[in-house]
Amino acid sequence: MLRLALQKNPWFLALLTLYTVVELSFNHRLLEFASQAFDRDDLDGLEFWGRCLSGCGLGLLLWRWLDRWIPARSLSGLLSMVIGISVMWQAQTRLIDFLLQQASELDKVTSVQRLSMRTLVADGGFTLKGLALGRVGMSDALRDSVKALFPAASLGVDVSELDKQLLTPSALSAPMFDVEEAQQMLNDAYRQTVVLPIALGVSLFFALLNISQAVSLLLMHAFRGTRARRWLWRGQPFMGGLLALCLVSLTWFSGNDWVDSAGHREVLQPALQTEKPVLALFVQWTLHAEPFWHDWAWFARHHLLQGASFRSPWPLKAP
Predict the structure, then answer these.
(1) Considering all CA atoms of the chain, what is the largest pairwise distance in Å, rounded to the nearest integer?
(2) Which of 36, 76, 126, 318 has a CA positioned 20 to 30 A from the CA of residue 222?
(3) How far is 26 from 24, CA to CA, in rounded Å?
């Protein structure tokens, strides 16, 4: 007796839906973290869950392929998750370590300043080299994204060139780091600066891929009773891929008051691409994607997961 293909099982569609809800909730938690005082347990927990969740997202994509070749479905599922999590864990770990190793002492020192300025800059009304950077009255979704991404987006420029007086004692005050040594504070500040765009960008990318997979399967189930069901199921991978391409393209080419501003297009973006091209790709994608999907992520976290915190399983300090 032939077993039912993995993608034709309703429980697989439910699993994709659950993953999407958790991934979007995690994405919103990352944005919330960017607005809070630094907490190493929080950052460690977000890095841990980010790598695991993106690995599960990759694993769900791999599972359909492995299921064709491995008779035991439980084994193919386990193997796909192990491969997915291992690949994403190693990839993100190596990328972040590479960025940390390439950072100059000046990058680390100014990252403390940039983190302390993010809320003020997100309010808008600044210019950089005479060019507007965002605007006053930006949406809450965009302001949250700017808070998370401004420290990384501005690494290629001297932020003292902003036309408003940011270099006040309150603006230069460092976030509350749970560290004793100054060097550790600098390392943590820079680590937070580069981790956020990478974690946010990867999280949303895999969420979009699995949303596409889930929607295409849902459509196939909806047309299950028609005469064309066999051809529809055969074309489902193509439909899922096309939907993913559409969602990613729609996200990438979406505009907002920050990315469309002259200060970002002509100063911040070119400078970061020159200084840190790898990081620039994540920053640019995330500046487009986060405001676009912000409300969906907020709804998933607060209404479906009831404000999940995604804390580290192995906290450094007692709760």
Answers:
(1) 74
(2) 76
(3) 5
| Residue range 239-251, pLDDT digits in tens | 888 999 999 999 9
Q: Token digits for 252?
A: 């990438």
| Residue 50: pLDDT band with limits 50, 70, 90 | very high
